[in-house]
Structures are given as structure tokens and as C-alpha cells.
Structure prediction request, 498 residues.
Amino acid sequence: MDNFYRDLQGDPTQGILDISETQEYPLGCRFKKNDGRVFRYMKAGGADLVAGDLIQSAALGGATATVQTDLTPAVAAAGTKVVTAAIDTTEQPKDTFKDGWMAVTAGGAAHAMGDLYLIKSHPLSATNIILTLHEALKRAITTTSRISLLKHIYKDVIQAPTTPSGVIVGVAPTVVTTEYYFWGQTWGMANILVDADLVAGMDVRRDQDTAGCVGKTATTEWAEEVGLGGWAAVAGDTGFVFLTIAP
Amino acid sequence: MDNFYTDLKGEPSQGILDISATKQYPLGTRYAKNDGRVFRYAEAGAVALVAGNLIQSAILNGAVATLQADMTPVAAAAGAFKVSVTSKATVQPKDTFADGWLAITDGDAAGAMGDLYRIKSHPASEATTAGWIFTLYEPLKRAITTSSRISVLKPIYKDVIQAPVTTATGVAVGVCPTVVTANYYFWLQTWGMSNVLVKTALVAGQNVQRDVLAAGSVGKAVVTLWAENIGMSGWVTATTASGFVFLTIAP
Prediction:
């Protein structure tokens, strides 16, 4: 099954509070329920997810020990769909980054900095990673270029940790078993774990004081906004939040 | 070709990394790619654009020397399609503001303050001269009086520019996914995973904002405290390199 995003037509056979061991829809598939809530199809990572917890994407690069950023590539001409780069120390299993992203993040404009491509596949990578892209390079890559890799943001999602390591992608609407597929809520009325008290009329943000929670404290001043608070909510409980992560 | 926003069905004949000297779609046309990215069709201004740069709309009112804001109108009755104002000093070419916006920005409720209309056309203006006439797509809902004040704005996807250093002069509209020649048409990215120039390093778990410390960049610094949020950062990025940002400008 590919993981190209699409809107689900009709109601899903896997309900919004159901989880599945097998993938029923493309990751990122959007289901807009007729009560204003919007969901994306996601896969849980290596730990169970808690109902009402804020969820983030897998850590950049797909490996905790050594993130796959700032990689040095081999020269690749415009028009090619294959890019080879020396990986960091952590071996990457086959297709870890399938349907994820390759960004040229350094090297200046003459070396394609600023370009972004979707990854189609790659083999197991011990020293070099050979990336096949969905689309051909628009500009040539040189050995001065630097490459960063990112997993599909709805693949292997985790409870938002106290030290953020990915981007917020939604809220778990139910308990999710490790590596199961589920509908992560991304928009509309939600019931979320609150660490710092909320009152009406506030932005709601990721709160790093506790894993999986939102709040409003000094530590959240720079944190990602995930919704709007129209109601008072008590710290340590869950409460109403109008989610605004992805419509 | 009009510039009414529409959703593009199917794949565009002008790809997301292609640029065109001729306009292929209405400005503002939305193309949602099946990898989660969303683009709007835009026209570059008079300067070439850099891949990975944050892009803003043309300067408010389309003139640097004298903004076309706070203009005094002739009284116009509800139902009229035409609004006549006294222009400001900088001469404006014909239809500079076509498909843009006319706002009544002063004059209180009795002078229709708060109303907004889309501009269909206008002739060239003369410097500081009465009788510059805007034709609207829809008639005035409330009468305009000589106490009203008028501001006009280009379409936000027309003549877009690199987000300038030091002082922002328009609204952030997206990120340039490729190199764009001056005055060419291109697909401007507005949502989803992007690769953006970073001035002030980002860490995971932060809002990402326009950073006026360097042109075309985003970041997270004291100067960005009140700046526009343009996305979310899930990853550590280096200063002056580009990095992954999940854009949240327009879905």
C-alpha cells in the first residue's frame, strides 16, 4: 500500500476509536467526521499510546543514537532519481525513510540548498544510503551539498516527550497498542491531557513539563501551538481543547 | 484569466518545481499534492526568488514611496459598484490592484468602517488627484461618506517577494520551493513539509516564525516574539542552513 495522502470517502471500516494490527489505509489518509473533527491515519511507534495524549512524529532521522542529518552526498546530476550519501553511524533498515523526505539543507544556492524531495525507497544502509526519489532532481547535488532525511511524519508516532524530538502531529483518541494503526485526531474538539491549567481565551501549546500534555506556562512561550482553549481545565486531568494542528 | 481561487483537479501541467513566463492558472489556485504539501499559484515580483526562502506578499498598497492608504472617497450610495477616491502621490498603473482588495479603514460605523470588497478593475492613477475610480465585483452594502477612508491592496499572490530583512512589509504567504526568475509564475508552498532557510537555529517543539534578522528566513529569536507563526519545528536546525519545517500558512 502506498502512503500518498487522500481524503477518505464515506465512513472508515476501521472506526475512529478502533486500532488495527494491519494497515487499512495509506498513512496520512484524512477522515473528516461530520461533527467537525478531522483525523489522519497513523502508525504507533515502539511504545503504547495513551488516550488523550499529545502525539509527535518520530525523531528526525529515524534513529535516536545518531540522527541522519547533515550527510555528505555523492555528486548527482539534475534529472536523476537516485541520491547516495554516507550515513551516520546508526545502520538504517530498508525503507526506514520510504515516503519520507530528503532535504538539501546546506551548501548554498549553488549546491541546491533549499530543495526538498519525497523518498520512494532505499535498501538497508550500513555505510551509504542509496535513496530512490519519487521525482527527479531539479538541480544538481554536489559533494558540498548536505542532506537530511526524515521519516513519514505519521509513521512510528510517539507520545510527545518532555524533550521534544519531532513535530506535533495530533492527539490519540483512544489507547493504541505499540505499532498498531489508528486515527490520530488533528482538528476540532478534543479531550487532551493538561499539565498547566488552561482558562478560556488562550492558545494551547505543547507543555514539556509532562509527557503527552498541553498547557500554558512560561516554558510553553515558544512551544508549538496546537489549539484554542475556550474552557477552564485542571492540571493533571484532561480537558476540552479545540485542536488546530491540521484541518 | 480571472484570479478567483479554485482547487486544481488532477496534476498540474506546470509541475511544482517548474516556473513559467506565462500564467497557466489563476493566481491563488490551490494544488494539494498527495504527499501532504499544499501550494498556491503565485507570481514573483521584480526580483528573482531563492529556493527555500520565506516569501511575503507585495508591499501594502503596491507603492513604496507613498502608500495608497487612508484615501478620501467621494460619497457613494449602497448598491454602487464604483468608488472614487483622491489618489496618493505615487502614480499607480492600470489594474495594479485588480483582483485585490478595497477596505474602508476609517470613518467609524457610520462611514462603513470594517467593510471589505474585491476590486475588479481601475484605470491608471494620477498623482494626488481626485476621481481615481475603482470598480468592484460586488456592490457596496453600506454607503461610503467623505468621512470614510479607503485602503487598497494587491492580490496577496501577485508580485510576491523575498521576506525582507529588518522590516516586514507584507504578509508571509509561503515558501519558494525552487529558484524563480523575476516576474515568473510558480507554485508557492503554503502547507506541509518544507525545507526553509533558517537564520536563528530551531529546536524541536517550537513554533517557527518569520525572522527579520536575515531576508527570506525563519527562526526563533527575541525579535520573532511577535512575528508571524508560519509553521512548526520538530527538529534541530543549524543557523544559516535550511531545515525541515512543517508549514502551517494556508492549508
Notes: DSSP finds no helices and 15 strands in chain B. Residues 59-153 of chain B form one domain. Chain B has a mean pLDDT of 92.
